[in-house]
Amino acid sequence: MISLRLFFIGLFVAGSAFFLVKENMSTPRILVLQSYGSDYSWTRDVDIGIKRILEKENTISVRWHYMDTKNHPEKHYIKKIAIISKRVIDQFKPNVIIAVDDDAQEYVAKYYNNDPKIKIVFSGVNGTREQYAFDKANNVTGILERLPAEGLVDTLRLLSGTERIIKIIHISDDSETVKLDDVFLHDYNGWKNVQIQPSLLVRTFNDWKDAIKKGCEVADYIIISNYRKIYKNKDTEEKASTSEIINWTMENSTKPVVGLNTFVYEDGAHLAIATSPYEQGEVAAEFAVEIIKNKVLPPYTQTKQFVVGIDERSIIPGGRFANLPKTYLAYALYSRTFRPKPKS
Hints:
The protein is of the alpha/beta class. The chain has 2 domains: 23-146 and 278-302, Response regulator (Rossmann fold, 3-Layer(aba) Sandwich); 149-276 and 305-339, Response regulator (Rossmann fold, 3-Layer(aba) Sandwich), CATH 3.40.50. 42% of the residues lie in helices and 20% in strands. The protein has 11 helices and 16 strands. A 6-stranded parallel beta sheet has the order 2-1-3-4-5-12, sandwiched between helices. Strands 6, 7, 8, 9 and 10 form a 5-stranded parallel beta sheet that branches. Strands 11-13-16 form a 3-stranded mixed beta sheet. α2 packs parallel to α10 and α7 (205-218) packs parallel to α8 (242-252). The longest helix has 25 residues, at 2-26. The protein is globular, with a radius of gyration of 24 Å. The N and C termini lie far apart (83 Å). The relative contact order is 0.12.
């Protein structure tokens, strides 16, 4: 009698496990493959955008995987994390991979081009679709990341209050991502009365200091996109502190500094006209949901929004940020990228 009871209990457990596994396998799955670590502010904000969309979808299973290649750019690490990331994909068997930033495309996502079981949604891509053969793949869409050049032009004209030629210079690290951004900046054909000078992309903190000094001599505004790969000196792989880089820049630059990413503002710059990480996340997640629910692969798109970061304390030579329309302040307050003057 006992053995018969155990038999039926075992049969029930096995059946339950079977149906649980079957149900699990039939649940739509999205893998968010992030190039960088969760401690990186850009990655954090892209994740916020993704979650805004996916938190409404309680019938989709979502898993996050962080490659952390910005903190670990070493070749041996990248080779290892690429293998691990592919293993995660093969085990999780996602219906859709949301691959964020260029490293995720280069080292992982492009190897699933034309895979009949997986759709790829790219996001935060500074490069081109052709670079990863996405233009020839039948299972890939996404949103390209482009610096907000149009918003920058409009803002500089408002700040300058003149139709004269405004000279800008792009100063950043010499990483591959920055080089892709720099190509876009110089190829942009809507500069109007803004003249972009030859860029200074550097590797060490001393080179950075020299670049800022030189930039102040040849330009009216210093434009900064990234400095996460500025090293303490040429003989070390130890990176300089990002806050130290921006603090030194703000203290020593004789020309206004404008960031092209929100983290430049967060680290201490007084103004950012930045690519929206939230848009990159939201659009990618919307595409993933559309693919799962309607079996439709939306056409790829690119940046349409930008974020404003303003520090109320800052004075621009020749004028104040108060010269900007109130909509800038309102948007910065709404997006929590406004830093008020400290109370005396």
